[in-house]
Amino acid sequence: MLFTDSSFSPETSPGYLVRMIHQMNVAAVDRALAEDGLTAMQWTTLVSLFFRHADTCGGLARKLGHDKGAMTRLIDQMEAKGWVSRQRDDEDRRLIRLTLTPAGTETALAAKRKVIACWNGFLADWSDADVAEMIAMLQRLRHTMEEKMAEESDACAA
Fold first, then answer.
1. DSSP per-residue letters across 26-72
2. Average of per-residue pLDDT values in the chain
3. Residue 12 contacts by C-beta under 8 Å, 6 or more apart in sequence?
4. InterPro entries of this UniProt entry (predicted)?
5. Can you tell me the distance from the alpha carbon of 12 to that of 17, in angstroms, rounded to the nearest whole number?
6. How far apart are CA 102 and CA 83, in angstroms?
7. Per-residue pLDDT for 158 more than 70?
8. CA–CA separation, 18 vs 1, rounded Å?
9. Would you give the end-to-end CA distance of the chain in angstroms?
10. Confidence band (pLDDT; 50, 70, 90) for 156?
11. Whether pLDDT at 1 is above 90
12. DSSP code of residue 109
C-alpha cells in the first residue's frame, strides 16, 4: 500500500506512530529509572557507550539525534556521577574518547533490566512471533531509510 491523500492521517502515518511510541517509551523509562537518579536520555547514552555505537560526544549526538552542546552537558553530569570517563585520543589529540567506568557499566546493566521489564509489560499480550515480526519490520524500515538517505546525500554531493 502506498499512501494517498485520503489514506494518510496521523493514525496511519509511520512517522507519527513511531514518534508517539517513542514519547511514551521515554516517559515510562524516566519513571522506571527515576529512583536510581537516571533519565531516559542518560540511559540511551549509557547503552550507546556500552554497545560501542559511538565513543565521542559528537558521535553520540549524531547517533541519538541530540544537540552537541546538550550532549556535552549530559556527559559532564554522567562524568560527575562516575559513570563515564574521558580520555584524549592518542593519535588525534583533538578527539576526546568516552568510555564507561565500572560504575557506569553496572548502572547500564541495572537500568537495562528495568527497561526490559518496561517493554515486557508493554508487550505482555503479544506473541513471541508478533514481537519478532515487529522488530524485523522496524529493522527493515530503518535499513531502507538509511539507504534512501545515503543515496540522497550522494546525489547532493555530486
1. HHHHHHHHGGGT--HHHHHHHHHHHTTS--SHHHHHHHHT--HHHHH
2. 93
3. 3
4. HTH_MarR-typ, Tscrpt_reg_MarR-type_CS, WH-like_DNA-bd_sf, WH_DNA-bd_sf
5. 8
6. 7
7. no
8. 18
9. 32
10. low
11. no
12. H
